[in-house]
Amino acid sequence: MFVSEKKIEIRYAETDQMGVVYHANYLVWMEIGRSQLVTDLGFNYAGLEERGYISPVLDLSIQYKKAMRYGQVATVRTWVDSHSKLKTTYGYEILHEDGSIAATAKSIHTLVKKENFRPYPLSKIDSIWDEKYLEIAVNK
Q: Which stretches within 2-136 are classed as H helix?
């Protein structure tokens, strides 16, 4: 299983009044994880946007397990859970430095033309990228 990892130093601004990371910041970290995965595979998401495509989120689920706090370092682990003609599901684990799980999540994305938001298969935009996602997808 191909898993990308990205370390994130937790900033004070990411915490709430209780001193723990505010829940919405995990979504930002997931985006950072997806970007790292794409980069690790040798592809360029910005290149897709330059060609007129974007990848909106269709669905997202997250389970919070153990709070994270300012000063800690989070590790975001990201992988392709499944990939089909029009949808890609990414899986995530956000870990504490000791390896314990702070959160798990999945997000479902599609590719659309920026001009009209019509779905467009990755295979027609970049067949090599599409083949790589099919190869590394955990659930085929």
A: 25-40, 45-50, 122-125, 127-136
Which are the catalytic amino acids? 16
Other C-beta atoms closer than 10 Å to the C-beta of 134 total 15
- Would you say 130 and 121 are in contact if contact means Cβ atoms under 8 Å apart? yes
Domains located in the chain, CATH noted: 4-136 (3.10.129.10)
Q: What are the two backbone dihedrals, phi and then psi, of residue 28, each rounded to the nearest 5 degrees?
A: -65, -45
CA dihedral 133, 135, 136, 140 (to 10 degrees): 90
Contacts of residue 22, Cβ cutoff 8 Å, sequence gap at least 6: 14, 15, 16
| pLDDT in 10s for each residue of the chain, 140 residues | 999 999 999 999 999 988 899 999 999 999 999 999 999 999 999 999 999 999 999 999 999 999 999 999 999 999 999 999 999 999 999 999 999 999 999 999 999 999 999 999 999 999 999 999 999 999 97
Q: How far is CA 48 from the centre of its chain?
A: 16
